[in-house]
Amino acid sequence: MKLMAIVGTNADFSYNRILLHYMQHIFKPQAEIQIQEIKDFPPFCEDDALNNHPDLQQLQQDIATSAGVILSSPEYDHAIPACLKSVLEWMSYEVHPFRGKPVMIVGASYGPQGSARAQLQLRQILACPEIDAYALPGNEFLLGHVVQMFDQKGNLTNHTQQQTLQNCFADFLDYIHSLAR
């Protein structure tokens, strides 16, 4: 099963990127996870056309052909980063690759609440008619105090968080299969 994973930040260093690479590694037996960076994508502008940007066209195709999408977002001032919002706008203006697509939301943050508010905002955005994605219900992977959660090799070290992530991912795979019926 092919899944897309989008690093929801343009920061050079990101625990959300580390989280996605960790997921790519540990869930390799269950799925092929392709990680997509967004840091070099142009800001959304409705006066610009998607076909002017081959990298955005490729993202649209990759999302459309994947079985599901994993969005990993930090939380900046109780919201998702502007670059992630911009990508979602690109993917909902002229094209609609998220329509009916299962989406798992994960997030890592320095604070105690993980990325709770950013995830809530993402759920609202994904539900809009222009995007119409199917966000995995009832599952939140909120990795707070992220500095203490990974070792130097990018491995998640907290057993409780490892189990929570495994449970959420198993639920996501079940969700994908149930929507495909």
Q: Proportion of β residues?
A: 15-25%
Total beta strand runs: 6
Unreliable stretches: none
Q: Give helix % range.
A: 25-40%
Major sheet attributes: 6 strands, parallel
Arithmetic mean pLDDT? 96
Principal-axis shape equals: globular
Radius of gyration: 15 Å
Spatial gap, N to C terminus: 15 Å
Structural class: alpha/beta
Compute the number of helices: 5
* Strand and helix order: EHEHEHEHEEH
Task: Give an account of the 3D structure.
The chain has 181 residues and is an alpha/beta fold. Helix content is 38%, strand content 15%. The protein contains 5 helices and 6 strands, in the order E-H-E-H-E-H-E-H-E-E-H. Strands 1, 2, 3, 4, 5 and 6 form a 6-stranded parallel beta sheet that branches. Strand 1 (2-7), helix 1 (15-26) and strand 2 form a beta-alpha-beta unit.
Provide a concise account of the structure shown.
With 181 residues, the protein is of the alpha/beta class. It has helices at 15-26, 54-65, 82-93, 116-126, 159-180, and strands at residues 2-7, 32-36, 68-72, 102-108, 134-135, 141-143. Strands 1, 2, 3, 4, 5 and 6 form a six-stranded parallel beta sheet that branches.
